[in-house]
Write a structure and sequence with these properties.
By secondary structure, the protein is α/β, with parallel strands linked by helices. Helices cover 39% and strands 19% of the residues. It has one domain. The radius of gyration is 17 Å and the shape is globular.
């Protein structure tokens, strides 16, 4: 029924009803609910995102998509860095290189501060908000799991008709690509969907 509603109504309805519904319905399928929120949000903001030049976009990728055995390095300011000359096949690096080749303002691989206990390493949400504040993009594409989205971002105050709230009142035009699971160490994603979102609005 809700899928028949226009996206401008579906998105705020789903976001504002999330907390009350989880209280009233403790057995609510939260993952399914979050996917509906993402579908509505992507549909609502897609045209604005696609019309935003790549130079004004940021891409945030999760470290859990890195190739197994990848000899990555953690930088406190720039997240996970791929060593130069790494020969391990890695879809994550391919996506990052694609976005950089298209001229994205910044592409960052976000590290989980909850898993990697290291002095000075920010929690993923704090890292993301700080980078948005520093880079001031107009649009942001984020690839993350449903648990992170609902626990850290699914709040009414984070959404408005003008975009999602990045931090300190900064509004960004969002698109989200959800991971297939919430495995913090080795996850997966629909790579074609992610690539299509990265290229959104770009002429072939």
């Amino acid at each position: 029924m809700i899928s028949l509603l226009p996206s401008w109504l579906t998105l705020p309805l789903l976001v504002f009803c999330y907390k009350p519904l989880t209280t009233l319905l403790p057995k609510l399928d939260k993952d399914s609910y979050v996917r509906k929120v993402v579908q509505a949000g992507n549909r609502y903001f897609y045209e604005k995102f696609a019309q935003t030049p790549c130079a004004e976009r940021m891409l945030f990728l999760p470290y859990c998509l890195r190739a197994e055995g990848c000899p990555t390095e953690i930088d406190l300011e720039r997240g996970l860095l791929c060593p130069a000359g790494c020969a391990i096949p890695c879809r994550l690096r391919e996506m990052a290189d694609m976005a950089r080749g298209l001229g994205y303002r910044q592409v960052l691989v976000v590290v989980s501060g909850r898993i990697h206990k290291r002095e000075g390493l920010l929690r993923s949400r704090d890292f993301l908000l700080r980078q948005i504040e520093l880079q001031r993009p107009r649009a942001v594409l984020g690839c993350l799991c449903g648990r992170d989205l609902r626990e850290k971002y699914l709040r009414p105050g984070n959404f408005s008709p003008g975009g999602a709230l990045g931090g300190h009142g900064i509004k960004v035009i969002p698109q989200v690509c959800l991971l297939k699971n919430c495995n913090c160490r080795q996850s997966d994603v629909d790579w074609e969907e992610l690539a299509a979102l990265i290229r959104a609005g770009v002429q072939p």
